[in-house]
Amino acid sequence: MTNSSHAGKRVFAQCVPFAPTHYQCFDAARLIAESVVGIDPDVTCVIGIASGGIKPARLMAAYLKVPFHTVTARHNTSNALFQQATGDVEVVLPDTLPECLSGTVLLVDDIAGTGATFAAVSDALNDRLDHSAEIMTAALFRNRGCVQNPDRWAWNVDDWVVFPWETPHHGLTRPVPTLKWVSAR
What we know:
alpha/beta, Rossmann fold, eight-stranded mixed sheet, disordered N terminus
């Protein structure tokens, strides 16, 4: 287990949370996976950040036909809406994660709020990367306040996102716009 602190501030218009459908999230995961086909070095595994990154990462790994792994990272103190990130990220690498990672390791989460989670998990994985390995980050959503952008993302948002795999939100929600392309850093 490692702790890491990376500052940043999420942007919330505090209107109504976005609520993507399962289909929209799966389609975005597929498009992100398609966007990394043929990169050099090749993607050799996909790591989903628990818990929000697991479903999109599993889909990307299946699409790319590479092994799927998970890590745990947490910094939100609850699941309450419009919560600012603490910047203190606790990372737990499971015993099942390979000791040596090579090629491009695709690290996936559902949202990049500030970039702190990706930075903390990347730091925690550094000792497992061989000399030529690279980490590439991908998120379905990127909050406009994100200071450390992922390498790939589908939507930019300025409000909270309620994912279909989370506890259902009983208030008003709004749809996400139609996905037209994957953004890349």
